[in-house]
């Protein structure tokens, strides 16, 4: 039991090796023909069809890309690190703006049954709209693709935070409020010292869901608006028919998403309490 | 005005019926007083509105009718003058034991320095025997320890009135006994006025100067006020040998088993509840001196039976 970490890590490694091994072996290029036709020579090789790249090819590209991730050789040739930074910047600005709106409004909704009832229909209608559906309207009104993609992130990350904050605040135990009341805490101190801290784990859970959604949406948004960012990078490499780079960037999107989730999980743990 | 420190006058609480029918009146025309430095327990069956009365005294709930006066001033909301210990401890689980207490002390004395707040808080932590555990979170404490923290928090703000809502209800019998004795010890060193709800007759006799007995709801009333004349200091082992102990105990148990129901019967119920034995309520006021004439419990001839 004490070495379950070790055993699970070993098992993960075995699964990964098997998966990559089968992929590598089953995906060999067809044997080169004795003589290539002139057409084949013109097309640059013996492969009649494009193949999904092998793990070894992806690994080679990954080492190459990650050894200088921040190079910038013009609009269509930027390092993966740089592209990820563009995406992160958009995600974080949209996400933080959403938090600035969602947490106070969620607090209000959680505290006031009247506001809850009044705002609920709007939330219920707006929440299921795919964030990308806002894109045309955002582009028309904001007239800037950069701000529009930030807006799309804003609109997709606002709902989980809003709903979780409202839920967390409204389900703060009456006992804690009574403690605040019997100690004559003012409304501001009650809000910050008692309600906010009591609801913090629920709020942070909402923020964790939101960052996940924002990272999902940014890729699609950047494919639409283009220019920079990891979503654009994926689409650009697809247009270049560079599938190795496509698979590599898919992996990078996963790694960055995992890191974002881990950070929020850490933050949630900090405010978590046991009753 | 009244010579009582705390005075509940004509308290009534009714809840609107869910179907729009006649509202449910839990208790009706409750009158009682508590003297300064007195320890008063209230006993009654579930549903008679004891907790509601306590919440009204605390200012957390509002009566449908009647008023509560403390120090001849009306209670209109929660105040640091009235400390509350809740049954489920109500400690803030995200901060340490010490911070749960300093938070209360800071609210009471906003002008104190950090060191003053800390010294005062530590004094009360030591008083309940939790020195060494002050950095632990409430979740890392046992039920008994949590209730000690809650008691320390209430005593630390030195309220004029301490309200205890079944503070030992969730504890096992052994722990309960220990904390009861600690509570008497702390209380006897202070001049704290205490109003406490309990279900436990022995606990009430051990702790209180006087026990209020409530009839069953709806339309619950305070039927009797029983003076506990067993001398202090009391402890659990010696108190049961006192000649009055079982007389008082039997009287209260008999009330809870039989008369709390009979008196609640709408046909036999009168506003001025008939008192079979014990102390007449409301207490008789001597018109000459204005002092409250509280008869002691009639004991003659009953000691041997016990």
Instruction: Report the mean per-residue pLDDT of chain B as an integer.
Output: 83
Spatial separation of the terminal alpha carbons of chain A: 28 Å
Percent helix among the residues of chain B?
Answer: 25-40%
CATH C-level of the largest domain in chain A: Mainly Alpha
How is the main sheet of chain A built?
A: none
* SSE-based structural type of chain B: alpha/beta
Q: Which radius of gyration of chain B do the C-alpha atoms yield?
A: 20 Å
* Uncertain runs of chain B: 271-284, 292-306
Explain what this protein looks like in three dimensions.
- By secondary structure, chain A is mainly α.
- Chain A folds into 2 domains: 1-51; 55-274, MetI-like fold, CATH 1.10.3720.
- In chain A, 76% of the residues lie in helices and 0% in strands.
- Chain A has helices at residues 4-26, 38-42, 55-67, 80-111, 113-126, 135-142, 145-170, 174-182, 187-225, 230-239, 243-271.
- The model of chain A has no long low-confidence stretch (mean pLDDT 91).
- Chain B has 306 residues and is an alpha/beta fold.
- In chain B, the strands form 3 sheets. Chain B has a 6-stranded mixed sheet, with helices on both faces. Chain B has a 4-stranded antiparallel sheet with strand order 2-1-4-5, with helices on one face. A two-stranded antiparallel ribbon of chain B has the order 11-12.
- In chain B, helix 3 crosses helix 4 (143-156).
- Chain B is globular and about 60 Å long.
- The model of chain B is unreliable at 271-284 and 292-306 (pLDDT under 50).
Provide the fold topology.
The complex is a heterodimer of chains A (275) and B (306).
Chain A: H1 4-26, H2 38-42, H3 55-67, H4 80-111, H5 113-126, H6 135-142, H7 145-170, H8 174-182, H9 187-225, H10 230-239, H11 243-271
Helix pairs in contact in A: 3-11, 4-5, 4-7, 4-9, 4-10, 6-7, 7-9, 8-9, 9-10, 9-11, 10-11
Chain B: E1 6-15, E2 24-34, E3 39-43, H1 50-58, E4 65-70, E5 73-74, E6 82-85, H2 97-108, H3 114-127, H4 143-156, E7 161-165, H5 173-189, E8 193-197, H6 201-207, E9 210-214, E10 222-227, H7 236-239, H8 245-262, E11 284-285, E12 292-293
Parallel strand pairs in B: 3-8, 3-9, 6-7, 7-8
Antiparallel strand pairs in B: 1-2, 1-4, 4-5, 9-10, 11-12
């Amino acid at each position: 039991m004490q070495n379950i970490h070790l055993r699970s890590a070993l098992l993960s490694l075995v699964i990964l090796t098997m998966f990559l091994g089968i992929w590598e072996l089953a995906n060999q290029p067809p044997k080169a023909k004795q003589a290539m036709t002139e057409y084949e020579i013109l097309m640059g090789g013996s492969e009649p069809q494009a193949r999904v790249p092998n793990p070894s090819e992806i690994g080679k590209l990954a080492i190459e890309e990650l050894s200088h991730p921040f190079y910038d050789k013009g609009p269509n040739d930027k390092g993966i690190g740089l592209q990820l930074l563009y995406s992160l910047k958009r995600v974080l600005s949209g996400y933080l703006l959403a938090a600035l709106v969602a947490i106070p409004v969620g607090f209000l909704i959680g505290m006031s049954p009247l506001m809850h009832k009044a705002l609920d229909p709007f939330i219920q209608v707006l929440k299921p709209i795919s964030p990308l559906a806002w894109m045309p309207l955002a582009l028309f009104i904001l007239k800037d693709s950069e701000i529009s993609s930030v807006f799309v992130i804003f609109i997709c990350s606002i709902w989980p935070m809003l709903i979780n904050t409202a839920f967390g605040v409204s389900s703060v135990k009456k006992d804690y409020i009574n403690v605040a009341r019997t100690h004559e805490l003012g409304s501001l101190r009650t809000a910050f010292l008692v309600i906010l801290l009591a609801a913090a784990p629920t709020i942070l859970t909402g923020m964790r869901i939101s960052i996940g959604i924002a990272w999902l949406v940014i890729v699609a948004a950047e494919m639409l608006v283009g220019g920079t960012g990891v979503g654009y990078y994926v689409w650009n490499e697809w247009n270049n028919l560079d599938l190795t780079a496509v698979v590599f960037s898919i992996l990078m999107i996963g790694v960055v998403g995992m890191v974002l989730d881990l950070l929020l999980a850490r933050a949630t743990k900090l405010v978590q309490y046991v009753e | 005005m009244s010579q009582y420190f705390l005075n509940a006058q004509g308290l009534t609480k009714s809840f609107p019926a869910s179907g729009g029918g006649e509202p449910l009146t839990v208790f009706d025309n409750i009158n009682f007083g508590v003297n300064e430095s007195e320890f008063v327990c209230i006993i009654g069956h579930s549903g008679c509105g004891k907790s509601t009365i306590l919440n009204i005294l605390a200012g957390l709930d509002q009566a449908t009718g009647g008023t509560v006066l403390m120090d001849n001033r009306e209670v209109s909301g929660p105040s640091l003058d009235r400390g509350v210990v809740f049954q489920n401890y109500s400690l803030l689980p995200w901060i340490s034991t010490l911070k749960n207490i300093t938070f209360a002390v800071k609210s009471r004395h906003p002008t104190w320095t950090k060191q003053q707040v800390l010294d005062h808080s530590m004094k009360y932590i030591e008083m309940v025997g939790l020195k060494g555990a002050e950095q632990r979170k409430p979740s890392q404490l046992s039920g008994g320890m949590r209730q000690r923290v809650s008691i320390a928090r209430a005593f630390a703000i030195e309220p004029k009135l301490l309200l205890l809502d079944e503070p030992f209800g969730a504890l096992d019998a052994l722990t309960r006994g220990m904390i009861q004795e600690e509570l008497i010890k702390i209380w006897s060193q202070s001049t704290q006025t205490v109003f406490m709800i309990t279900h436990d007759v022995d606990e009430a006799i051990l702790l209180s100067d006087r026990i209020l007995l409530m009839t069953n709801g709806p339309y619950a009333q305070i039927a009797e006020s029983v003076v506990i004349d067993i001398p202090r200091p009391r402890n659990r082992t010696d108190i049961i040998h006192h000649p009055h102990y079982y007389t008082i105990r039997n009287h209260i148990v008999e009330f809870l088993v039989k008369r709390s129901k009979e008196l609640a019967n709408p046909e036999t119920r009168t506003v001025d509840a008939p008192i079979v034995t014990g102390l007449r309520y409301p207490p008789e006021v001597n018109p000459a001196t204005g002092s409250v004439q509280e008869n002691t419990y009639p004991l003659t001839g009953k000691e041997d039976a016990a």
